[in-house]
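Escalation from tier 1.

The customer reports that the assembly of two entities below gives different structure tokens on two consecutive runs. Tier 1 could not reproduce it. I'm attaching the input and our single run for tier 2 to review.
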Amino acid sequence: MNALAPHLPVLAVVVALATAPLTFLLRERGLAWAATFAASACSLAIAVRLAAHVREHGAISYALGGWPAPYGIELVVDPFSALLLVIVAGASTLALAVSRQGLGREVPAERQHLLYTAWLLALAGLSGIVVAGDAFNIFVFLEISSLATYILVAGGPRRQALPAVFKYLVVGTVGATFYLIGVGLIYMMTGTLNLADMEVRLRDVSDLRPVLAAAGFITVGLALKAAVFPLHTWLPNAYTYAPNAVTVFIAACATKVSLYALLRFDFTVFQGNLPGHIAQFAGFVVPLGILAVLVASVVATMEKNVKRLLAWSSVAQVGYILIGAGLASATGLTAAIVHMFNHALAKGALFVAVACLAMRVGDVTLAGLAGAGRRQPLTMAAFVVGALSLIGLPGTAGFVGKWYLVAAALELGPWGVLLVLPVLLGSVLAVVYTWRVIEAAYFRPAPADALPRGEAPAGMLAVLWLAALSNLWFGMQPAVPLDLAAGAAAVLLEVR
Amino acid sequence: MQILGYYNYWVFAVLLMIGLYAVMSRPNLIKKLLGMAIFQAAVFLLYITMDKVEGGTAPILRAGVADEIYSNPVPQVLILTAIVVGIATLALGLAIVVRIHEEYGTIEEDEIRRQDRE
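Tier 1 run:
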């Protein structure tokens, strides 16, 4: 085991990547699931080990194949990437635990091994983006994860999944191509693709106009992938029509990984090299973040389909992360990054609850949920815990990020109050839209032909409660994610 | 002269806009994908243009020639990868269009939206 320890950064990607063809060959549904789950759990163990190591000893730089950077490909694991790695592998493992029983209703048994192959590729791609220290590798991993995610979403049981995926594919490709143009422009000016090297070499570039164009292309391209309002149009339908287990996975981590790449570029590469870049960045993302919080939350209060309601809420949560990042202070970035983790916990739990509800009612609409509080009391109770965390009630994980966000806004002085308002308003709206689900489940009379009382399979319930309780645990004991987030903020703000 | 000297970059910008316009304005899904392919091809041109060195050849070491001028091979390798990614995306997009045609009997966006509303 100790011989493998120095190679953990690359193993975080390779384990999933190498298992993907295996699941394709296994064919049998149960075996394919077992292999996928084993690979994902292994990735999670690696991610946790890396996070512990980074927290204690600082960032790790890994030269792939022994070729030193900037000529070779460098993998970097610092607090930011370690935290994201835990989110990605954790979300995947949680969602896979649900999928064993949950997927059967939505995807025919003979096609499930194909879905698991795509799943592993998505996991490898997302992990790859997070550990890559090189702009072009980020592009390649971005496309690996995107192509695999399109396949996962297209596996949805309803035909509406297909136009949703088509839109996602076109928008996603335009975003990735924008990113590629930006990377090309920077390569023209610096002759390097390594992010750390790029930062250093950009200092000697006298004509900054191509770099400014590159910053625009990269920021907008990644914002498309991260569903930054108003570039979020692909997200609600893709989340709604994907199989439930897939929604758990992608809703918990896909947009966050793109946000990760966005922050890496804007803070590491451009911050010190483009005069006034961070002010421009803040001027771009903070208004969009506020709009996202307000508009998406209002839309969520009007949705009838629970999955779509939660998808709109995800658009709003991206808004909180952007507001925190736009403040560009240590507290603001800590808030943004810790909210990535906490939102993944809350949304993960909520979508697992949806998957459990769907085991009984099929399509999870507000009308279909009438009486669900009595029919599936354990599931609905866990949903309430997830909803409280999403709202940001003290004692739940969601509170930590919002508390830091408000603190960061107030650091700005009296004007900061203007930023606190949308944050609080967004939380109030979150109360409204989650209440609609709770009201339907507990207070609406069940129809006469209602299903008898009965829960989802015990395995799924166990996963659901694990997710719900972790929301409470990280609400009471937020030290570890906060430490990593504060470390990540320090890495991003540092100008060498 | 300045404008003509940047001929390739002008073509890049024009192709990019043609592709993006087609993606946004055409309701036909196949035409959208064609627009997307043009959009990506424009970026291939950008990368291939930037590596060109006047009078440069392929970067191959020859015995006895120490200071050969050669074009930068890195962008060519990069764009080869991007071309592969582009092909994969286009293939997946076309496969989805085939499935959409099977399910909806049409590949016009308006018609699909109308059927979904019903």
